[in-house]
Specification:
Length: 294
């Protein structure tokens, strides 16, 4: 005779609750109020897009069309929610792990204000990225098209704001931002990477840029490119070490090329051909390509 559904559910709940007692990382059941909220962070990203591109990501929920009033509402929203989320994640930081909640809240307020003050600088970089995309892609009918349609522009934009939080030593939130962009665009840029002005991602799907990557100015990258670590078998022992390449100015990297290793430097004005696999430095002005089999 089959058990009633209610009894089966009751037994399943009891079994799973017992499994939660394993004292493993996945068994954590802290109060959800203290946990960072991924949906709130994604909402912050979308509000920041409205601040960074005021004419393109307009907030239709606001009935006030005065620019100053709308911006004030957006800034207040971002400040409030970002402050709360930063206060939560600071407990992951060595500097704030042992301090009281009041200290973390005060620090979160200072960090939030410092981040928002960097908005003009972020927009300065984004203007150069937009210009690089328009100048570098004859298929672009307008800059409006790039802002509204190009996944590369969106991924770079989210990276630019996440990178500023990364520089302010905010744990978890920058990575949540760039992984959201990754899920939407297929482009994976770690917020710790250092990327100069006039950065253009063409097509974009499958691009990976690692944490310790350094990219100069006027660099163009096509779909499927990996700028990664040569090996991560050392695990946490490699933390804070330079594991990813340096790409100097005016470099073009064509589709599906892999450039690996912390000591690898791609010299200025180089062109890396499609499907190339590079693990050592390339001199300035080089042309690297894969020979066809005869």
């Amino acid at each position: 005779m089959e058990k009633p559904l209610e009894q089966e559910v009751k037994e399943l709940v009891a079994d799973i609750l017992e499994d939660y007692k394993g004292n493993r990382a996945i068994d954590q059941m802290e109060d959800f109020v203290d946990q960072p909220d991924k949906e709130v962070i994604i909402n912050i990203v979308n509000k920041m897009l409205k601040i960074l591109f005021p004419g393109y990501y307009r907030d239709k929920s606001y009935k006030v069309y005065n620019a100053a009033s709308q911006l004030s509402l957006l800034i207040e929203d971002v400040m409030y929610y970002l402050n709360k989320e930063i206060a939560k994640v600071l407990r992951y930081s060595r500097e704030y792990s042992g301090v009281g909640e009041d200290v973390r809240k005060e620090a979160a307020g200072d960090i939030t204000k410092a981040f928002l003050k960097r908005i003009p600088s972020v927009r300065e970089y984004l203007e150069t990225d937009l210009e690089a995309a328009f100048d570098g892609d004859p298929a672009a009918a307008s800059k409006d098209e790039i802002i509204l349609c190009y996944p590369g522009m969106l991924a770079i934009t989210v990276y630019r704001m996440a990178h500023e939080l990364f520089l302010l030593s905010v744990p978890l939130i920058p990575r949540t931002m760039t992984e959201y962009a990754h899920s939407v665009t297929g482009i994976d840029i770690h917020p710790g990477a250092v990327i100069g002005k006039y950065f253009f991602i063409d097509h974009g799907t499958g691009i990976v840029v690692g944490e310790t990557t350094i990219i100069g100015e006027h660099v163009k990258v096509y779909q499927g490119v990996t700028i990664g670590a040569l090996s991560t078998s050392g695990g946490q022992k490699l933390k804070d070490k330079k594991r990813h390449p340096t790409i100097e100015d005016y470099v073009t990297i064509y589709s599906n090329a892999s450039i690996l290793g912390g000591e690898t430097v791609i010299g200025r004005d180089s062109v890396i051909g499609g499907n190339a696999f590079i693990t050592r430095s390339v001199e300035a002005g080089s042309r690297v390509s894969i020979r066809n089999k005869e």
